Amino acid sequence: MPDDNVAGERQLAAALARCAAGDKAALRVIYDAEAARMTGVAFRILRRRDLAEEATQDAFVRIWRNARSFDASRGAARGWIYAVLRNRALSILRDEGRFDSADDAGLAAAAEEPVVERLPENSALRRCLEALDVKYRSAIVYSYVHGLSHGELAGKLNVPLGTAKSWTRRGMLSLQECMG
Questions:
Q1: In angstroms, rounded to a whole number, what is the distance separating the alpha carbons of residues 104 and 153?
Q2: What are the tens digits of pLDDT across the range 86-138?
Q3: Which domain covers residue 119, as residue numbers?
Q4: Minimal CA–CA distance to 103: which of 155, 164, 149?
Q5: What are phi and psi of 146, to 5 degrees?
Q6: Are residues 127 and 81 part of one domain?
Q7: Spatial CA neighbour of 92 closest among 151, 153, 45
């Protein structure tokens, strides 16, 4: 299986190089290999199929236009492709007006409560998440469930970047201790 991953990565890197040279068939190679998975990733971020499909389509346009900026010495082709997709999906979230800053921890807690409530009542993860301080729980849920970066998390919770990083780290340490 690891050989399949290496071969797939090489195929994607070669296809990106061909896209940069203007080979439209190379974009089809990337599409055939990744489009379904990309739509799934976008759906996890956007929670709407139509927006996920839009994000995937937009990502392919951006991949085609910006393929020259891919540098294999700086990272994996698949990572670059999914970074393009994630950035596009997050832009759509902001454009849709669902990415407003929370004014206080109460709004943040209200936004992440359904995630915790969807876990089985006897789940150790649910018990541990409920035991966390609200700010730590919000940081973890926004980061790991909604896919926000530290910078996006800071904006969402209306706190400095260092605070967002600290809350995420402390929350994860407390969660690991509780789950351990």
A1: 13
A2: 999 888 877 665 444 444 444 455 455 577 888 888 888 889 989 999 999 98
A3: 105-179
A4: 155
A5: -95, -10
A6: no
A7: 45
